[in-house]
Amino acid sequence: MSDGLTLRGITKVLGGRTIVDGFDLEVRRGELVCLLGPSGCGKTTTLRIIGGFLRPDAGEVLIDGTPYTHTPPERRPTAMVFQNYALWPHMTVFKNVAYGLRLRKLPKREVAERVERVLASVNLTHHIHSYPAQISGGEQQRVALARALVLEPKVLLLDEPLSNLDAKLRVRVREDIRQIQQRVGITTVFVTHDQDEALAISDRIAVMNNGRIEQYADPHALYREPETRFVADFVGTMNFLEARVRSTGQGAVVDLGDGVVVPCAAPTALLDTPGTVGVRPEDVQIVADGDGAKARIVRVMPRGHYKEIVLDLGVVTVRAFVGLEQGTEEEVRVRFGRALVYVDDRLRRGSPTAPTGSVAAS
Ligand SMILES: Nc1ncnc2c1ncn2[C@@H]1O[C@H](COP(=O)(O)OP(=O)(O)OP(=O)(O)O)[C@@H](O)[C@H]1O
């Protein structure tokens, strides 16, 4: 039996619709896992089932191997931080954080010690006597986090905790949360629909779609090897091209039809029937030599330290991220550094039609 959180076959039907559909998930002790997916895919429902606010119709919730499926929230070793932190406006930071411990009737001295310790860990000691209205949104969110951590739960649950903050503050507070989570070493499930947020703070990400997990992987694998077209589209930017991937004497090419052929260094498979090919914008490369496909730059968007450009290949346009010094001319030649091949919306690796060893499948 593993340490951490285990969900087995969790199913929930609400209003006649299956919202969570046979969901399995293992979160190792001390790990931060994001549930990432579009609005309505069942993230919050799953989190509420872990916290005990909703009962599943089927399946089990285990924490450190102990079943808690039918235990009410207050008797579970979990604590939840909500989107709208729900601090008491008439109570000081100290009293807000102490509230849960007072309900548990702990001695006054122990309450004070634990509150002071947890406020120090979220860097809020100087605001111990402030009221919520006297501190910033980011600080209020750290109070909400402290209020959960002070209960010393085994599993911390965060439901879109940053959605009330502006873009800059979101980035800062998410880094704070990640740092505190790692320092405390607490098993954490974090719900977000923001892929950037998930990629930045997670040990692993479960991408959800229609109440199911599409892929469960670490951020790098999820970005580089999205297993389904849905994940490839949801995480990061992707050019999807209807194309054939063939091997030639010189290597592989992506054949876009009408005679447009783009050299490609590393397709995940060869596919001599039409399929969908995914190319990340950073894998669209402008080359100096003559063997790249001809392209015309139709749009240039400065992005600070790099440029986003749109290239017209004649039959399709593709988006590319290139260095500031590149893409200054109107006509260029391009190749693909890497291409992901999807058949029936699933990533294809290798190919039965390709001679062994003819493809660099990285
Ligand atoms: N009590 C309920 N009765 C009927 N349908 C519900 C109920 N609660 C939630 N739903 C539906 O379940 C679906 C999933 O909701 P959930 O809140 O889990 O999604 P989510 O992925 O967290 O989305 P969001 O990011 O918008 O919060 C939604 O379509 C929602 O309308």
UniProtKB/TrEMBL annotation:
Its EC number is 7.6.2.9. The keyword Cytoplasm does not apply. Pfam families: ABC_tran. Keywords: ATP-binding, Nucleotide-binding, Transport. It comes from the Bacteria. Residues 5-235 form the ABC transporter domain. Signal peptide: none annotated. The keyword Nucleotide-binding applies. Gene3D superfamilies: 2.40.50.100, Nucleic acid-binding proteins, P-loop containing nucleotide triphosphate hydrolases. GO terms for molecular function: ABC-type quaternary ammonium compound transporting activity; ATP binding; ATP hydrolysis activity. This is ABC-type quaternary amine transporter. The lineage of its organism: Bacteria, Bacillati, Actinomycetota, Actinomycetes, Propionibacteriales.
